[in-house]
Amino acid sequence: MTPQSSSTKAAGPEARRLFVFNGGFLTQPRIRRILELAGYEVKLGAPGPTDAVGVWGKSPTSPRGEAVADFLERDIIRVEDPFLRSVHLGREGAAPLGLLIDSKGAHFSSDKPSDLERLLATHPLDDGALLERARVGMARLRASKLSKYNLHDPDRSPPPPGYVLVIDQTKGDASIAEGGSTASTFREMLVFAQTEHPGARVVIKAHPETVAGHRKGHYEHDLASDRISFAEADLCPWALFEGAVGVYTVSSQLGFEAILAGHKPRVFGQPFYSGWGLTADENPVPRRERRLTRAQLFSAAMILYPTWYDPCRDRLCTFEEALDQLEAEVRAFRDDRKGHVATGIRLWKRRHLQRALGRERPVIFKKNRAEAEAAAGETGRDLLVWGQDEASMGKIVVRHLEDGCLRSRGLGAELTAPLSFVADRAGIYYDPTRKSDLEAMILAGPPPGGERRAERLIRSIARTGISKYNVGTDTVPELPAGHRILVVGQVEDDASVLLGASDIRTNRDLLEAARRARPDAVLLYKPHPDVEAGLRPGQIAKADLAGKADVVLAGVSADKAIEVADEIWTITSTLGFEALLRGKPVTCLGTPFYAGWGLTRDLGAVPARRTARPSLAALAHACLIAYPRYVDPQSDLPCPPEVAVERLSSARLPRRSLAYRGLAKLQGIFASQSWLWR
């Protein structure tokens, strides 16, 4: 899928020079980079005959550029934030996830049509694929509770339903005056809201910049009464829409989001979304006569009009790719906003955890559980522990950490940094004796568009040959003819074996069970890479392998081993899940996270609570998209799994430091003391 092109982008192989008179264009690298990728070269000085003048919307600085453009008769390019911007506020330094680049006017100004208005007025907006993208996009925003800014808490409960929602804006917002409104319009709107809904409560939603103390709004808290109240500062807009019987706005973007939530907002200004039959307009724009559906409005405003940017891949991207990135960043913010106290974390892992989980507040590391619990209780932070551990203590939220299924290019036992991890509040995915967040996600099913996204991810993983560790060679020894069963060795003291195995608990016993069940099959035994490296227990003596395994796939990559096999036998190995992704039948003698859902042949005990029968794509969505978090090793940003797959499939990953490589070598010498680094 390629980014949508727009008439606002510079044409031709050479960049069009864009002369600016606002320092923000020069001091914000992300904005310059997006403009560069869109075909503009930001410059200072006097624009020539073929150059354009760049201004930021209708900001206080825009008259400078407008005056120059008018005097020299140059084109004006107006730049603004997109309708999905960032987690944090722009005034706090957060970079935007794209730009609105308009050659006709500002999208919020009703004095003349902008590029956006022309799209809404003249574009057919009848392409079935485009409209389906819009419908899925709207559903994703709702499911993920995403807005322009995303500092809200999606778990906070809204007021009891039945209220009228009145949306405030900051004083001096250009969209107010440019939409034919004034400060008095807000007073008028509040009166209308009370008059048109007699007896209903009125809830006022302040602008995030007002909440943060950057700019004043039009409604002061002294308006509060038995009938009028102010919404909690971190309430999610989508939650507010659910309980509202009416939505009132002058020109706020939340009016647009209210439309997406199913409302027909009462609009007192002239924002871009008014006049198309989706709003009740107090001050209509006469030239807007077309009637649009919500999907058509969304298609133009969110898919066709913006220039979206992928900060991990450093390129322009589609709306969907930008949404993937925003979801990753928002999830990281929501998980980490309160901060964390960690205990039981090995020294070598701490730097990586700080990078991944300390973006909002630095992680506090404590030596023991008691100190960590005390610190978490005093500060209100979550408690991080590694792997399977006891449940939450009182009001303390315990998150159980582990590596994700797409981990690294190299072994964790060799101190290779992970690209993914999980932080489970209920349990941990490899422990079938208790519930986990992963189980809950599988039972709930994927969100809108989730299965299709997972299908694309599965194809990408299969095409690139990505596995958990991505070690080994593609060179396979000559194999006997016949039905080939890949028997997957594991680290025998691994928690997934200790907690998830049934009667078969060792690699030797697994091989013997496979041979008893399939005496005529060709058994291919693949040792675990940690065991092969001498770092973890699970080695089978050569004498014991004789007569059990026909071929030992020593040093062979997981992807290649799966490819040459007809089916896979395992206790609880993640390789079994990777085999499912590649369409191979899998027999489980234990209870791994992917067993018990109808996709594997299960010889071990399966929890009765695993009642769902998901498709492979639905299972993959839970395991690879919804459950883990990913960190891009190049940008250090939270990222979607698609970026992680690209990084793992390339050879351009950061190398371990010399100290880590040296320590990893020492581990081979002191393999019996693996508790030191595990």
Describe the structure.
- There is one protein chain.
- The chain has 678 residues and is an alpha/beta fold.
- Helices cover 34% and strands 15% of the residues.
- The protein has a 7-stranded mixed sheet, sandwiched between helices.
- Mean pLDDT is 93; it is low at 1-8, 663-669 and 674-678.
Quick structural overview:
This protein has 678 residues and is an alpha/beta fold. 34% of the residues lie in helices and 15% in strands. Among the domains are: 148-291, 3-Layer(aba) Sandwich (Rossmann fold), CATH 3.40.50; 465-614, Rossmann fold (3-Layer(aba) Sandwich).
Broad shape: elongated
Q: Given the structure, what is the number of helices?
A: 25
Multimeric state: single chain
Number of strands: 26
Q: Can you give the helix content as a percent range?
A: 25-40%
Report mean pLDDT, rounded to a whole number. Answer: 93
Strand order of the largest sheet: 2-1-3-4-5-12-13
Structural class: alpha/beta
CATH architecture of the domain at 465-614: 3-Layer(aba) Sandwich
Q: Characterize the largest beta sheet: strand count, sense, and whether it forms a barrel.
A: 7 strands, mixed
Secondary structure layout plus pairing:
Blueprint: E1 16-20, H1 24-27, H2 29-37, E2 40-43, E3 52-56, H3 62-72, E4 75-80, E5 98-102, H4 115-122, H5 128-144, E6 163-167, H6 174-177, H7 183-196, E7 202-205, H8 208-211, E8 228-230, H9 237-243, E9 244-249, H10 253-260, E10 266-267, E11 280-281, H11 294-304, E12 307-310, E13 315-317, H12 319-336, E14 340-343, H13 347-357, E15 364-366, H14 369-379, E16 382-386, E17 398-403, E18 420-424, H15 437-444, H16 450-464, E19 484-488, H17 495-500, H18 507-517, E20 522-526, H19 529-532, H20 542-545, E21 551-552, H21 558-563, E22 567-570, H22 574-581, E23 586-588, E24 601-602, H23 616-626, E25 629-631, E26 638-639, H24 641-649, H25 658-669
Parallel strand pairs: 1-2, 1-3, 3-4, 6-7, 6-9, 7-8, 9-10, 10-11, 14-15, 14-16, 16-17, 19-20, 19-22, 20-21, 22-23, 23-24
Antiparallel strand pairs: 4-5, 5-12, 12-13, 17-18, 18-25, 25-26
